[in-house]
TrEMBL record:
Its main location: endoplasmic reticulum. It is a peripheral membrane protein. May be involved in the metabolism of insect hormones and in the breakdown of synthetic insecticides. The keyword Ribonucleoprotein does not apply. Signal peptide: none annotated. Keywords: Endoplasmic reticulum, Heme, Iron, Membrane, Metal-binding, Microsome, Monooxygenase, Oxidoreductase. This is AGAP002138-PA-like protein. It comes from the Eukaryota. It comes from Anopheles sinensis (Mosquito).
Amino acid sequence: MIVLVFIVVFALAYYVNFRRSRKRLYELAKQIPGPFDYPLIGSILITLGKNPLQLVSHLMELMHHLPSPMRAWLGPYLLVVIDQPAMVQDVLSSPDCVQKPFMYDFFRISKGLFGAPADTWRRHRKLLNTSFSPVVLKSFVPMLNEKADGFVHELAAEASAGTFDVHKPLARYTVVSIASTTLGVDLSVEKRDTLEEYSSNAIELFTACFERIYKAWLHPEVIFRRTNAFQVEQKRMQTFKKMSKKIITLRQHVLAQESGHDRQDSDPEDKQDTSPRGKIFIERLEEMARDPALHIDDDGFQQHIDTLLFGGNDTSAQTLANTMLTLGMYPELQEKVYQEIVDVCPSGPIAYADLSRLVYMEMFVKETLRLLPITGLIARAPTREIPSRGITIPSGAIVMVPLLKMHRDKKIWGPDAETFDPDNFLPERCIERHPYSFIPFSQGPRNCIGMKYGWLSMKILLCHVLRRYRVSTDIKLRDIKLSLSLVMKLNTKHMIRLERR
């Protein structure tokens, strides 16, 4: 009895001290509307008993009727949900709001740009930015044309086979093209099964990691490690890491060959430019790893590769696959994209200068990203108080930006917000909207480092595919449901048909 009383008294004292230490957080939280506050558990009840597909539908329905900004509690953690573009800009553009919240650690890549702590991220991002400069991106165009042309020939077998899931070949294509350009290794010799296993396993791995976020009872690592989910995660992580290990091994062979060549070639005029601006991602990362001040160990080096490879592969493959679906859904709009391609680059390789002239194609892909987003929400953890439009977001809160809701908000996009219309991105319409109304790759200093590379590679591939094939599908936009994950998932496969032009 004495022990029990001691435990109760200790727990109460701890709780009172805990509340006192967060007095400012609670004071500022009271200024923000919050309809789901329950003692101790906060708002966790709205997630119970719902799978990712049901959760999206439930949250979307709620968000259209809830105040913004809005507070919610995930156990002891204060969530501040904002979807007003001006407030989103205040948060994402703030230098005090580049830290990712603790949930990003669940993905086990917290040494790469995706989840690195703010200080580490700042140093590494500044140095790695040069590997996506216009000079470097332009140098990728011949290789991307070569890979896209090979992909088009690969599709010939599918064109005569009826309906097929286009995501699988696209996942293989994006892995190979990213490795060939940014990582300097050739994965085209790998078996199809190996490339497909990497992509499908990564999707399952990070989907499970994401689901852990809204299962608050699994947040403590000491509890999670005692579950079957942890054992499954470890097996998937081992499979996931095989690809980056392979790339590191291949890269070592490349460097050894280059070193041998340099020893034989003593004429400096024959050597290529190795200025920092011209270095691809892997070359820049290798240089950084040799700097002891940056503290990049072997695990950190591999995590940077994991981040780039998965981040580029799954987002590009999913965007392209979604775009293939919408092209098939709207044949009259597909014809407009095709006619623009014929006008700009009717045959042969796509030139770097041609890409900026593919205006309608970009509008079409943006509209696909608006209604079928790659990322459903993003989150930040402010390290200082962030004043925004009449409220103050406290340090210690987690700010959540629901892109899925913003990109379908009728207050922003009008009464036909659910209708697919690339004209939403006509220049005169864009000028009327806040620049943070549409941020598919995030925005501010911690946006996607490979965003320009993604546009480059996607445009080149779409040009090659649409010059050769006409796309159709039986799937309708209204039939597609989305489920929350690190990369948003559809309730259907990307089933299309190809017809030779």
